[in-house]
Automatic annotation (TrEMBL), chains A, B:
<keyword id="KW-0460">Magnesium</keyword>
<keyword id="KW-0378">Hydrolase</keyword>
<keyword id="KW-0585">Phenylalanine catabolism</keyword>
<feature type="region of interest" description="Disordered">
    <location>
        <begin position="381"/>
        <end position="404"/>
    </location>
</feature>
<dbReference type="Pfam" id="PF01557">
    <property type="entry name" value="FAA_hydrolase"/>
</dbReference>
<keyword id="KW-0828">Tyrosine catabolism</keyword>
<dbReference type="InterPro" id="IPR036462">
    <property type="entry name" value="Fumarylacetoacetase_N_sf"/>
</dbReference>
<feature type="domain" description="Fumarylacetoacetase N-terminal">
    <location>
        <begin position="17"/>
        <end position="107"/>
    </location>
</feature>
<dbReference type="InterPro" id="IPR015377">
    <property type="entry name" value="Fumarylacetoacetase_N"/>
</dbReference>
<dbReference type="InterPro" id="IPR005959">
    <property type="entry name" value="Fumarylacetoacetase"/>
</dbReference>
<keyword id="KW-0479">Metal-binding</keyword>
<keyword id="KW-0106">Calcium</keyword>
<feature type="domain" description="Fumarylacetoacetase-like C-terminal">
    <location>
        <begin position="116"/>
        <end position="381"/>
    </location>
</feature>
<comment type="pathway">
    <text>Amino-acid degradation; L-phenylalanine degradation; acetoacetate and fumarate from L-phenylalanine: step 6/6.</text>
</comment>
<dbReference type="Pfam" id="PF09298">
    <property type="entry name" value="FAA_hydrolase_N"/>
</dbReference>
<protein>
    <recommendedName>
        <fullName>fumarylacetoacetase</fullName>
        <ecNumber>3.7.1.2</ecNumber>
    </recommendedName>
</protein>
<feature type="compositionally biased region" description="Polar residues">
    <location>
        <begin position="387"/>
        <end position="404"/>
    </location>
</feature>
Length: 404, 404
């Protein structure tokens, strides 16, 4: 797919990307669009004009109706968009449906059914183990046998740009005899990559690693905001709850799985060899280069290719017990962290639980996030044309805790 | 509310109960009904006939549209149903809309938004602590400070009667060097009580204990099916995942909060005193007497009044970090277990992790559940008329694991 487009395709939003999202203009209903350069292609209008297959789902306020249509529909629509945006003869008919992104409001792209968050970076797992459980083995004994995960709160998954209100809750500093209540003092981000399910699965049947593309619609960037003090105090024995459930942010644009084919690389060697249901014949590491920014200053450059467990392994694991998938099921990778400090994907690791404050280029220091801080995660991946494609950023600004 | 009804009100389904559910007859669309005696009052037809306030929500296939209407609407509708079912002059107009429950199929009563499961029985927490974490303190240090909870899988909450397929997954018996894969060998039930949210809450604002009734629509019985071998191996450090996510069953009928007013009792004394946000001026223990049956034989009689944390405390905790509530949010109490063996709410406790097999009246023994076993949880509560009201049973039969 190295064909040139007649449209402006800058910023990593060329015809080898074409992510889907939900947009609206003032006074108009939200509907489905695709990003191309700095513009949004109005798919509802295109469908009405007979330029793409007539799908009422494009007039919908979420991608769910299109996501459930399945891979043949996704592939056909993508091929058609490429045709329309490269063939000059369509230009006059398509141009009227291209809207500058500055003129639209972007919404949450899909309705989240269930939200599951993994813990699949070995570097992150080792670091948090050292910080939270210094007396135990660094890596839990199950960690290299299965992709550890938990369910998060689907109702608090927000689109990029949503303000993040600092959560309050119980926390007890080690050494303190009593827990106290108040705004989190250790508010953190987690830079992650997520994928979203389009096609449901049948009850009692898992989704083998080889069927990943038949179910998964696309990828987003994800920030699993975390209150470390709440989390540390509450997590025993059933895992994180309020420390995570106040907010999770996702990108406004969903990158189709097909757009990431050129990004596929071999994942790290898995030793011990996983059980048969977790084996994957295809290489499904993804060469996504993330950048984390605090107040527009890059603080970390995690690489998604370093993740120990791949997305198809995560999906096969999550369904091997017969749990069904629904359209809109969202799976987060877990914090993406690399071996060096400048590749760590959260403040907990970057400041080593606050013990080694991080120096920002603007001269300030951070242990955890402060009110007013804006955290942005962005990423690029190799594109089919040779130049990188952009995964649209996920960003959020910390607002002070609500008064009780 | 001691008025007599002209309708047959047997089985604990009198006019002081009037639970809501979703039913259908062959060839007809599912719609909202209320249970009275052995019959279902067709509220969609009643609304069409002008007998209850015209609500399109009664023609819906889930209770969500009625649940979001809020407490004034719930109270008004309940009062109207009592009027219609007690005043003889309405009898001829109402009778045509009463359908024998044997003629209908009951559906899942509401669409589940998020599903949270607590761990609020002190006896259950102490027992599982002794079994799973024998080297640690019996009760985690946070347990009496906050109601411990985790998010479960909303997409696998099923109505009573849905077959439960034995899940497969990874498990490692302590002492074994390697995990193996296969059908769970320690399949269990958990007898619980759940409540469901009708009215959403605002972002960043918690729901104080005193506002419980403004948000919560009603209660169900709940069985949080659990694969103990999968759960034990996977849970470190992020809590249960596949050991729980294959299935959760709920009653077909939702008992309105108002129907349980006469069941309210003082909960156990809480020592240490909870933090202010968890204090509750009203007494919110609930005198629900549960019975657990395996293949129609009673194996346990847990009492919900023994729960350490109350429902309003659970809701206040779950939202104190600003997490929003959505219509359909389901909260499970956690396994209801009492101090004696015949009050334990799961096989893990009843057979002490399989070490003390349970003798059933039919002469068989159980450590965990076998294929073909039917587990039923039912309950009664004091009703306003003096005789008990019934919480409709939640039941499920174990089917063999799917072939991979």
């Amino acid at each position: 797919m190295t064909t040139d487009s007649w449209a402006d395709t800058g910023g990593g939003f060329g015809i080898d990307n074409l992510p889907y999202g939900i947009f609206s203009r003032p006074g108009e209903l939200p509907r489905v669009g695709a990003a191309i350069g700095g513009r949004v292609l109005d798919l509802a209008a295109m469908s009405e004009a007979g330029l793409v297959e007539d799908r009422r789902c494009f007039a919908s306020g979420s991608l769910n109706a299109f996501m459930v249509a399945g891979r043949p529909a996704w592939d056909a629509n993508r091929a058609r968009l490429v045709e329309l945006l490269t063939d000059e003869t369509y230009r006059d008919r398509v141009e009227p449906h291209l809207i500058p992104v500055s003129d639209v409001e972007l919404r949450r792209p899909f309705e989240v059914a269930d939200y599951v968050d993994f813990y699949s970076s070995e570097h992150h797992a080792r670091n948090t183990g050292r910080i939270f459980r210094p007396r135990d083995e660094t890596l839990p004994s199950n960690w290299k046998r299965l992709p550890v995960a938990y369910h998060g709160r689907a109702g608090t998954v927000f689109p990029s740009g949503t303000p993040i209100i600092r959560p309050s809750g119980q926390r007890r500093t080690p050494g303190e005899p009593e827990p106290t209540f108040g705004p989190s003092l250790r508010l953190d981000f987690e830079a992650e990559v997520g994928f979203v399910v389009g096609v449901p699965s049948a009850a009692g049947r898992g989704v083998p690693t080889g069927s990943f593309r038949d179910h998964v619609f696309g990828f987003v960037l994800l920030n699993d905001w975390s209150a470390r003090d709440l989390q540390a105090w509450e997590s025993r024995p059933l895992g994180p709850f309020l420390g995570k459930s106040f907010a999770t942010s996702i990108s406004s644009w969903v990158v189709p799985v097909a757009a990431l084919e050129p990004a596929r690389v071999s994942p790290p060697v898995q030793d011990p060899a996983p059980l048969p249901y977790l084996r994957c014949d295809e290489r499904w590491g993804l060469d996504l280069r993330l950048e984390v920014l605090i107040n527009d200053q890059v603080v970390s450059r995690p690489r998604f290719a370093s993740m120990y467990w791949t997305s198809p392994q995560q999906l096969a694991h999550a369904t091997v017990n017969g749990a069904t998938l629904r359209t809109g099921d969202l799976f987060g990778s877990g914090t993406v962290s690399g071996p060096t400090r400048d590749q760590r994907g959260c403040m907990l690791e970057l400041s080593w639980d606050g013990r080694e404050p991080l120096d920002l280029p603007d001269g300030t220091k951070r242990t955890f996030l402060e009110d007013g801080d804006t955290v942005t995660v962005r990423a690029q991946a190799p594109g089919a044309s040779g130049s990188p494609i952009t995964l649209s950023e996920v960003t959020g600004t910390i607002h002070p805790a609500s008064q009780p």
